[in-house]
Input
Amino acid sequence: MINSTLFTGGRILDPHSATLVDGLSVLVEGDRIKAVGADVEAPADAREIALGGRTLMPGLIDCHVHVGAWSLDLWGNMVVPGSLAALRAASVMEEALGRGFTTLRDLGGADAGLARAVEDGLIDGPRLIVCGKGLTVTGGHSDLRTRSDNRPGLLSDRVGSMGLIVDGVDNVRAACRTMIKEGAKFIKVMANGGVSSPNDPIHSIQYSRDEIAAMVEEADNAGFYVAAHLYTDRAIERCVELGVRSLEHCNLITAETAQKAADRGCISIPTLVAYEALALEGEALGLGASEFAKIETVRQGGLASLEIMRDAGLKMAFGSDLLGELRKYHCMEFEILARVLTPAEIIRSATVVGAELCQMDGEIGIVAAGASADLLVIDGNPLDDITLLGGDGAHMDMIMARGRMHKRSI
Ligand code: ZN
Ligand code: ZN
Output
């Protein structure tokens, strides 16, 4: 087995400065980047990969996925055997790696077992950062029960289940502690109405201030943070004030709140492709009129929100949030972002900003000594042409995750 790889003759993409640097070699040993420099000494048995002027860049980070949401039939995902749900999640993860995503942050569903399976080499997939289940109030965004369905919960012990219904400060604290005990690296809360849930309009505010403050305290005590599902400005402002760090979606944010969030060091995760995909395919997939109306509300706010957040200096991490069959639109997020953001801004969102949100600054999202060997070889310069990161990996001549070769055509 080859343990060392020396990359020569490439142009190394630095996301911070948004430049390509010539004349450097990169040595990978095991799962780490060992050295980056002009004169790198490689072991005699190292394999050399001559890049011939291609771009060598860090693997991409998607900060909002649900790898357990195999199908758009969210109840169907829950009731299948756990073994099947886990294998389905593995295939979703492998698919994402084939698009160049070497790290995924799961916002509800995946458990630490899936993350461990990647570390142990059982799944040829991206690194997975999990939160356990998304916390929802009774009748909130993850409560999928219809009005007359009074079954007690959401089969929340299943891999294919995305949420946990929990109400009250003490119960919320216990739920956070359980998630963290089971391997969560952050806490997810549904703090606002949603599209795919039956009983909560977009404008509904979910959880009391006390409950969210308790989550923030529990997460912070463990060295983690809270990520909140949010659309409306009122919901976002409230969560920013309560110390929530990760602001998911943010479609209807105002400039004032974006400024406040930026000042507090928050990171937002726009997921615009989720609404484009639902608008494109929702009818065929059986969505009803009320869901469609909700989709339009958040879809129309989406592009404006990018401009508002960029102008406020609010950091943005790349996210997709595609469920089930809609995952085929994953790379469309690059095109949507490109209507407002520059390639450099988009690349930063999918590398260094994502790394910060995963609390893995310097370890992922960067080509540097000591970082994880998550590397892509791109035929061209994505700083000039962001579509090179799309096309389901079509322009990627190599995808390496944690030193393991996933794809190589050079
Ligand atoms: Zn959400
Ligand atoms: Zn989501």
Notes: Residues 64, 66, 107, 321 surround zinc ion (ligand 2) (CB under 6 Å). The chain has a mean pLDDT of 96. The chain has two domains: 4-59+365-408, 63-357. The first helix runs from residue 74 to 79.
